[in-house]
Write a structure and sequence with these properties.
By secondary structure, this protein is mainly alpha-helical. Among the domains are: about 230-315, no CATH class; about 335-385, no CATH class. The chain has helices at about 15-20, 25-40, 45-50, 55-65, 75-80, 85-95, 95-105, 110-120, 135-140, 145-165, 185-190, 210-220, 255-260, 290-295, 305-315, 335-345, 360-370, 380-385; strands at about 130, 170-175, 230-235, 250, 260-265, 275, 285-290. Strands 4-6-7-3-5 form a five-stranded antiparallel beta sheet. It has a two-stranded antiparallel sheet with strand order 1-2. Helix 5 packs across helix 15 (about 305-315). It is globular, with a radius of gyration of 22 Å. The two termini are about 35 Å apart. This is Lytic transglycosylase. It comes from Thioclava pacifica DSM 10166.
Length: about 400
């Protein structure tokens, strides 16, 4: 489910991108052929990789229709963290205990984190997507919205084909080109693919050990710090300075404790720095998030998705259900879009005006709340919208 939120692994200057997307399909494929040849593929390999390649309109429809991340954190978490996924998480922990033990020794990534992404991405491998991966990547590379993200993935998929680990006719996955049980893009597989079951191949679709080991290596390479937490639920006093909450402020756990922040289970991690995260404002659930939490945004850029995955991982590691609180009524996607437009006109950077309360909109909301003398918890309400 990385979907729209990819890691940009290669930098391509805009003029190159403009020259390489759009236009006739045959001319576009001709350009791909030239690039594959420059990458070292033989004519036979190029022909094999591109045989039967076609545009997929349903890929573009899926790209334009993303709406899941307009849900609030509590709504999204309730929808995806089911009792069945908790039960299957416990079952898979036992089933792949040796793999998880090896992962924790080698990469320092806890099993709960991998189980959470495995569940949210593909329901533990059960739903991996039925889009032809080669065609999806070519379609999105031809489309001029984000060719700089997808064209390198086409080249990487061709290299996997040359290695014998990609079938352009039969390899399927998500609409945006992710493959396998933890949904990795071809270039991610090239960089971080691990043969976890020892069969000489990296098969993320059919081998859970390969998928889990590869996902762990990718997280470690993205900056995961072994032996450190990522999130814990907290209680916060009503007197807390709400302007200090949010990912933009990071303080020591000693400082947070002095302000009355307490762990709901256990104690705050000693000697570490973290941020107080209020995904639905001061009256909703509260978490202290540590540096490893920020690494998860390299897997997926959605605030709601990452916060849900991180919380789910704590549950899979034995944490109690969160205390949802009674959040103030939020805004509809249309209202958030209006709010973003108003904030933009006032000079705040909200990123894209898309009706999603994302990583840029939240601090903009918080800054506006503080300026207007409202509780600056980053959660937009009708009161803020009216005051603006």
């Amino acid at each position: 489910m990385r979907r729209l939120f990819f890691i940009v692994l290669l930098t391509i200057v805009p003029s190159f991108v403009q020259a390489q997307c759009g236009g006739s399909w045959s001319a576009f494929l001709g350009g791909i052929r030239t690039e594959l040849r420059s990458a070292g593929l033989s004519t036979r390999e190029i022909d094999g990789f591109l045989a039967g390649a076609r545009q997929e309109p349903k890929v573009l429809r899926a790209d334009r229709a993303q709406g899941v991340f307009q849900k609030s954190f509590l709504d999204f978490a309730a929808a995806v963290i089911s009792q069945n996924r908790m039960v299957n998480g416990a079952r898979n922990t036992k089933l792949y205990a040796a793999t998880f033990d090896q992962i924790e020794r080698t990469y320092g990534v806890p099993r709960g984190v991998l189980l959470a992404f495995w569940a949210l991405e593909t329901d533990y491998g059960a739903v991996q997507g039925n889009f032809n991966t080669r065609n999806a990547l070519l379609t999105l590379a031809h489309d001029c919205r984000r060719p700089e993200l997808f064209r390198p993935q086409v080249i990487a998929a061709a290299e996997l084909y040359r290695r014998g680990d990609f079938d352009p006719q039969r390899t399927t996955g998500a609409w945006a080109g992710e493959i396998g049980q933890v949904q990795m893009l071809p270039d991610d597989i090239m960089r971080n693919g691990v043969d976890g079951d020892g069969d000489g191949h990296v098969r993320l679709k059919t081998s859970a050990p390969d998928a889990l080991m590869s996902g762990a290596k990718m997280l470690r390479d993205l900056g995961w710090r072994p032996g450190e937490p990522w999130m814990q639920e907290i209680s916060v006093p009503a007197s807390l300075d709400w302007a200090k909450t949010g990912l933009e402020t990071e303080l020591s756990t000693k400082d947070w404790a002095a302000m009355g922040v307490k762990a709901r289970q256990g104690t705050l991690a000693r000697g570490m720095r973290g941020s107080v995260l209020l995904p639905m404002g001061r009256n909703g659930p509260a978490f202290l998030v540590y540096p490893n939490f920020r690494v998860l945004f390299e897997w997926n850029k959605s605030f709601v998705y990452v916060t849900t995955a991180a919380y789910f991982a704590t549950r899979l590691e034995g944490a109690a259900r969160m205390k949802p609180g009674t959040p103030d009524r939020g805004l509809s996607p249309a209202q958030i879009k209006l709010l973003q437009s108003k904030l933009t006109k006032l000079g705040y950077d909200v990123g894209k005006v898309d009706g999603i309360l994302g990583a840029k909109t939240r601090p903009a909301v918080q800054a506006a709340q503080e300026r207007l003398g409202l509780p600056a918890d980053g959660w937009p309400t009708k009161t803020l919208l009216d005051r603006l």
